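Entry 14. Ran structure prediction on the chain below.
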Amino acid sequence: MARWQRLWFATLLVTLLASIAGAQAPKTGKFYENQSLAFKVKVPLDWEQVPPDPNEKNLIVKYDPAGLKYIPMGASGHLFVHCWLLKFDRRKKPESDDKTTKIDFGSGAKDLAAWVKGGDAGPGFALEGKARDFELKKIPATEYVFKSSKVSVEEVKLYACVYHIEADVDVAIVFNGPADPKKWNKWQNTFEEMAKSFSRIEVKETAAVVVDPSKQTLRDKKRAELVEKLRDTPEWKLYETPNYFVVSCNPDRAFIDELLGRLEAIRAIYEQDYPAAKIEELKKLAADLKTKEQAGKDEPKEPDEADFAKLVTGGADPRELSKCSVVRVCKDSEQYHSYGGPGGSAGYWSWVAGELVLYDARKEGGKGDTWAVLNHEAFHQYIFYFYGNISPHSWYNEGTGDFYSGYQYKAKRFTLEKFQWRVSTIKDAIQSDKYVPLKDFVRWSQAEYYGQNPLGVDGGQNYAQGWSFIYFLRTGKKANAKGWDPRWDTILETYLKELAMTNSVEKAVDKAFDGVDFNALEEAWKAYTK
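Output, structure tokens:
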């Protein structure tokens, strides 16, 4: 996952400038309809729909204020306000016909109390007073108010209403807001109005697409799965290319069309550099090596990360899986972080969730930033399906991602250029003699790469050095770099091959740089980068 400092600072500046204001108390809006559980309920007016993570068990959908999403809390701190729609399904799950082994992510919280205790709405909430049971349109329901310990200077409350729609199935609507009585009374009145709009609905019949099971591909199954999930988040739409499913609520169709074209075009570049046939050859070598290592041993083989990845993919054909790649595009940075995007990032590939997630960055830095993130993270997504969850050193992994970020899209084709985000940073580091010696850099852990290193070099500079080193190794020979040594031609290929065969980053470095004069390599790299 890349740490895109440039976008982070832009987002931080917007937040600071807006801190004098705050999200307004919600107003009752239109009905949200859920087809899976057959209910409808009114949600806040003009609030934006945020879907759940694919592995989320309780969240049906979340709503956030449009624009500014928090209210100031005293002298410091903010409360980001939400409306959560939750489900607590305690029914025994039917046995699946799918016999592939996959990771079990659990069943989620069994009821509202467990969900609140789990901290999804924030820490330290306790029930205030007694819960109130009542009946709403012949549906048994229970109303709750929870109060938190202090988040900053002020306290926070939760309003929740749980609808017992079946013996083992509950649906809940939950809101948070400021506990100050002058504010809370106004907020709670609106919360109660929306909560009491809940009712059951008739499920709409959908036109079923009949596919012969014997002819159904993994892509057919993934499409059906996405379509089914999108029934419950109707503001999000599905778009397709030959290798990708793109899910977005961005109404700008020109932006979406450009994104679709870029995805396929950058994938063609990945396929040139990492062809599937070559990857299959490496995997066969690795499998043969493991078989030899286990020969004559009675004890079972210890599972490695590649085995663990099979639990996520079900051991399916990686070529078919890669054609089911999912990309989720949030409308802006606020929606991205509400969905789960890590702080300090502008995109990420989650192999556990099976999604590449990013956002339209035009408000912060322009579409160019979105495209740079897309090229970087889509590389991680592409390579995962063929190699599994192997973990190269960050100089290789993030440096290669940034190498692809340098590709520029012109006339619907990509051409390689330097990644301008990184150029000045690494030039300054070399000129001031503050770069990391390459013999150390190629062995740094992810934590060291991100800034926890004895030299005190921050993650931004390390990303720049990783990009420049990969750029040098991939382009230096063709550009007749001064002092180029033919032994450097195979460093990258040897590194990945050894890693795929042994799953050891140390062995991969040893093999890739065997016989390499680091002093000569470093001097040539610096001269090429200045």
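The two ends are 27 Å apart (CA to CA). Will compare against last week's run tomorrow.
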